[in-house]
Amino acid sequence: MGSHTDSLPTPATPAGRDGLDAILTRPGRAVLAFDFDGTLAPIVPDPDQARAHPDAVPALAALAPKVAAVAVVTGRPADVAVRYGGFAEVPGLEHLVVLGHYGAERWDARTGTVDAPVPHPGVAAARAELPALLEAIGPREGTWIEEKGRAVAVHTRRAGDPQAAFEALRDPLAGLAARHGLIVEPGRFVLELRPPGMDKGVALLEYAREIGAGAVMYAGDDLGDLSAFAAVDKLRSDGVPGLLVCSGSDEVTELAQRADLVVDGPPGIVRLVRSLADGIA
Predict the structure, then answer these.
(1) Given the DSSP bridges, would you call strands 183-187 and 190-194 parallel, antiparallel or unpaired?
(2) Residue 205: Cβ within 10 Å count
(3) C-alpha 53: how far from its chain's center?
(4) CB within 10 Å: which end of the chain, N or C, has fewer?
(5) Percentage helix, strand, coil, to 5, in the chain?
């Protein structure tokens, strides 16, 4: 990799170095995908206050015209991620795609519209039962419910002991989810109930194949991103070079152990995106 890549960090693995090299040398076939919360946006106590890092959109807009595609893959509803990210009508991001609700929804910058199927009925049914279930478990000071349309989440970040509250909720929420044909996705002090069959890995794999990716990068920070890491591994086994990036935190270590490259949270992601934009001719 020539001198123009001096500002780029070096992946810790041979597969990661191959992935980065493929992105730099064949950018026109590269798909770069990013989680939203914790990756492009700092984690905040109230998810409704989450916003993309102020430098994320300018960095993505500098990179996007040089690669095949840039995608945001998130558990949030697609329109919410677009709004909180500030992704709409940005010069340079005309081809951005947001795969929301783990790929069940898709927003295209070209049309500015969301394509989405009918919601799973189990989500509304589980949501209706949640308050009574939380009450039965005991004191839930600081535990709260987030409406996500196609999913519903219970957060414990504001509880006096977030980890203890998280553990106390795991089994009861798994039982509730199972009764309504849903699954539980654990995250950083959050347990999300959502329909089975879609995850970030499925969304990323389908999108990479649709684009005909010749190289792929995925950046994430949480347990829900492990499926996307697995999708990159699958693409690698099919001969498509890939780069796994962890937006590092001290809350989740599993992703860092799997990653080719660990950066310092959203500011590190922004620096990486800028370096890639500068490194591609």
Answers:
(1) antiparallel
(2) 22
(3) 14
(4) C
(5) 45, 20, 35
Question: Which DSSP string corresponds to 126-184?
Answer: HHHHHHHHHHHH---TT-EEEE-SS-EEEE-TTSSSHHHHHHHHHHHHHHHHHHTT-EE
Which residue numbers are catalytic?
35
Kindly report the CA angle at 89 between 88 and 92, in degrees rounded to 5?
Answer: 105
Whether the CB-CB separation of 76 and 101 falls below 8 Å is answered with yes
In the DSSP assignment, the letter for residue 258 is: H
Indicate the pTM of the whole model: 0.84
Give the pair of three-digit tokens for residue 224. Answer: 């829900």
For residue 40, the SS3 value is coil
H or E element that contains 274? helix 265-279
Residue 28's H or E segment, with its range, is none
Per-residue pLDDT tens digits of the chain, which is 281 residues long: 344 455 899 999 999 999 999 999 999 999 999 999 999 999 998 889 999 999 999 999 999 999 999 999 999 999 999 999 999 999 999 999 999 999 999 999 999 999 988 888 999 999 999 999 998 887 667 899 998 888 999 999 999 999 999 999 999 999 999 999 999 999 999 999 999 887 999 999 999 999 999 999 999 999 999 999 999 999 999 999 999 999 997 777 889 999 999 999 999 999 999 999 999 97
| Distance between CA atoms of residues 85 and 99, nearest Å | 13
Structure tokens at 254: 């599993």
